[in-house]
Design a protein that fits this description.
Elements: H1 8-16, H2 21-28, H3 32-38, H4 41-49, H5 54-61, H6 64-71, H7 89-96, H8 99-107, H9 128-135, H10 138-145, H11 162-169, H12 172-179, H13 196-203, H14 206-214, H15 231-237, H16 241-248, H17 265-271, H18 275-282
């Protein structure tokens, strides 16, 4: 008697003992009968023998129905990760902006397994919150920040928080959302002692600079890096005129502060040949 004459229950029993996905796929492709009988079993097989790796594929591509189907299988691993990048389903969904999948994963209750690690780090130390901030996915950010398990001040391998990454990318609404979060540390600096304000000022993101300095949780406008260069100095050194002008017009900025080598913001502008920046200082009588 050939395989095609076996009952569906017996076929499922055979399939359950095939550990290789490739071998199971070959069996499924043998006949139309096998395809219809065993194709749904592929997900169960993936959970049992491949640690729920299909979750990674579905999360990256935004396949909500597939995520639903996998999560219904006992033993599905919410924390499965790519063996090289260490990216988890939650990480991939957050990075790609798949709001509904992020919602599903955060709400999922493990069935006797390990609970979801909301701050699982990839190979660069980034968390789902950090990559969502990098990409400016505001709705994903709201979901993550509403989950009490997420650490808003967690840093990556460069010492940068989600707030720093949002400032680097120039997303004022993401920055505003983060500043409204309880326990946020707005002046948290990276390995080079750069703060979110330093990144925003240097990058020319004036709208982000304003959010940082004009909100309830205002940051330290004179906070310097490891050589005591302030955001104003970095903006002047980089020729970022609109940011320099804004900072000069504030009454809480020490415009003549000197760095470790004794240079002021004006001196940096002169050294790099930014005459339009020098003129901003001249017009305000700042030597």
């Amino acid at each position: 008697m050939g395989l095609t004459h076996l009952s569906t229950d017996l076929l499922l029993c055979i399939a359950d003992h095939i550990s290789s996905t490739k071998d199971l796929d070959s069996l499924i492709r043998t006949s139309r009968q096998f395809y219809h009988s065993l194709q749904p079993f592929l997900l169960i097989h993936n959970v049992k023998y491949n640690d729920s790796s299909a979750l990674l594929w579905a999360a990256y591509r935004g396949r909500v129905r597939l995520i639903h189907a996998i999560l219904r299988i006992p033993g599905s691993d919410l924390n499965v990760f790519h063996e090289e990048s260490y990216e988890t389903p939650l990480f991939l969904a957050a990075e790609q902006g798949h709001t509904e999948i992020v919602r599903l994963l955060l709400a999922e209750q493990p069935r006797g397994g390990i609970p979801l690690d909301v701050d699982f780090e990839d190979s660069q130390g980034d968390t789902p919150l950090i990559v969502a901030a990098k990409a400016g996915h505001l709705e994903v950010m709201r979901l993550l920040l509403s989950d009490g398990r997420v650490d808003v001040n967690k840093t990556n391998d460069d010492g940068r928080t989600a707030l720093a990454q949002a400032a680097i990318s120039g997303f004022p609404e993401v920055v505003r959302l983060l500043l409204e979060t309880e326990n946020i540390e707005p002046d948290c600096s990276d390995v080079d002692l750069w703060t979110p304000l330093t990144f925003a000022a240097t990058g020319g993101h004036l709208d982000v600079v304003k959010v940082l300095l004009e909100g309830e949780k205002r940051v330290d406008v004179t906070c310097g890096d490891w050589k005591n260069l302030t955001p104003l100095m970095w903006a002047a050194r980089g020729g970022v005129g609109h940011v320099v002008e804004y900072l000069l017009d504030r009454n809480d900025v020490d415009v003549v502060l000197r760095d470790e080598d004794g240079r002021t913001a004006r001196m940096w502008a002169e050294e790099y040949g930014y005459q339009h920046i020098v003129e901003l200082f001249d017009s305000r009588g700042i030597e």
